[in-house]
Every structure is written in structure tokens, then in C-alpha cells.
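Researcher: I've been going back and forth with a colleague about how Putative signal transducing protein might be arranged in three dimensions. Neither of us has a model we trust, so I'd like an independent prediction. The organism is Marivirga sericea, in case that matters for your notes. Sequence below.
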Amino acid sequence: MKNWKTVFKTEKLYQAQIVKDYLQDKEFHAIIVDKKDSAYQLGFYEIVVTVEEVMRAIKLIEDEIKFE
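Model: Here is an independent structure prediction for Putative signal transducing protein. You can compare it with whatever you and your colleague have in mind.
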């Protein structure tokens, strides 16, 4: 995972899926990394993209995706 960087973190799988799908629709190479402990459900999900896409992905997420 050396050439991949985190652009979004959440405790909710549905939010991670929305962000991943949005980025993939925009032709990013986005994947979900599950960092939750399966026994206690502590932790979070990360969306990672390639290092070349990090800045564009963060800008799109900040400008286009709102969870309230």
C-alpha cells in the first residue's frame, strides 16, 4: 500500500461506499480499507487512492460530498 494514500475516513460503511463509488465514477482508482476490529466494531474505514490522485480526490470530496 506504499503508493496509496488515505483521502477519507469514517466509522460508517455506507459513507465509505458512497465516497468510493463517487471517486470511481470520476475515474479514480479508489478502494475501501477496512480498519475495524471485527470483535468489537471499533475503528474505521479508509478510502485510499494512488498518490498521484490524492489532491484532486480530496478537493472533490470536500466540494461535492456532504454527510449531515
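Researcher: What would you highlight for our discussion?
Model: I'd start with this: Residues 4-64 form a domain with the Alpha-Beta Plaits fold (CATH 3.30.70). After that, consider the following. The chain has a mean pLDDT of 94.
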